[in-house]
Design a protein that fits this description.
4-stranded antiparallel β-sheet, 48% strand, mainly beta, 339 residues, globular
Amino acid sequence: MFKKHRLQTVLWWAALFLLIAGAGIIFVLSQNNSLLLHKAVRVRDESIFVGNRASYFWISDDSFLTTKEIAQGDYDLLNCNVRDGQQKVVAGASALFSGHEKASDIFWWLPSPDGKWLLTISGSPEAAVYTAGSADGRQQFSWKRKWAPGQIAWNPDGSGWIEFSAEKEQTVLRFFPTAGSHEPTERRFPKRLISAADFRNPRRIWILASPLARSWQDSLEVLELNWPGGTNFVLRSRLAVPKRARDFPHEEMCGNRVAILFSIEPAFPRFVLTGQFPFFRPESRWFQELWIEALDGSGLRKIGRTRAHEGISGVQWTADGKAITFLSGDALWRVPIAR
């Protein structure tokens, strides 16, 4: 009788152990399935990003532009094709990407959507120089910035770009044309916290903004401005925000959708062992989650997350809007997005 009872006890504990182990395995697998790197595929041209956190921009369904440092302060602009793996130097852009060896200076660049124009921002943060040039090297002109830096977006037709910057109690919009006198025109609006700006089409500017009157977690506003004749922003919708989001370091609009990278703080901390009483302490964790939703505020959907204390950068939609790409671990990754 005693042996039978002991056997039942052993079997009961074994069943409990298997149940807990099975639940743990299911939990780990479910967590791994939500990881971005488990859903993404590595792009063929990842070698150009090894040891070089370069910016990149899609200019077609098959190719993107990126830079590679060939000497201190000198860069090659590369046109990379993801189908055949070819990398071609854009020779006409060499003048724009040379002579940036001063470490304290800034250097940033942005191509027009069709890749025919290139904008570079260089010099000191207090007095940066904007230089625009055609990709074939035939045209080039510059401005000296005398205002606070802001959000920049190219017009889809390549006619110029806009820059939003906050100055005193206003938001200032400046339009820089690539034709004519090249002198920027300026418009001023009531101050708002601009998070992102993009052209919906050559006649519509979409703004992702957070109202200053309340916390940004309440909602992100989508505003529209007719271009060039609009006199004020028109509220189109409010975007939903995940409950545990603490910040959004990056956002990218594409057509009627927006991809937002949120910084997330888990609801419960992780406990780690210590050598002193009470022998454990809570440790805060953070990770990033990539979400997409329609610009009308519907269809909020999580694409995936990073591991704890691991971040990604360079989140972008591909030119066809069928995937999102990002940089992680010195490589370029692509995750498909269903409509």
